[in-house]
Amino acid sequence: MPQQLQGKATRPQTTYTQGDFVLYRDARRFWLGQPGHTFVGRVERVWRHAETGKVFYDLVELSTNRLVGEVDPDYMRLLPPADAMADVDTAPLAEADAGAMSPAAVAWLHQHLVQDSSKLPAQRD
Which residues pair with 56 in a beta bridge? Predict the structure, then answer.
């Protein structure tokens, strides 16, 4: 006997602002099985439909720099900076093997050292 769902799935009620990074899924392409239905984008513009009052977003697809307009927020999810930077924040800096760190952590560490190397005090003999 099939089980019935006990609760109703809820979608997050998120308000996005210009510059936010989001994951977007084009529902039509997804249900048709077409490629390229999901991508990471940056919110370019927030606007309200004149007749319905519903909020829509214009996104810039990061991999192609293509503008995608009139995006329904029901198919967007915020990509928090903490998730994107987790590999840097948790890098095992005490490890002797730099190979244990992710490429992003190594790149951040390298950039940080190059930028701040002029601020280091001179070595004493």
Answer: 47
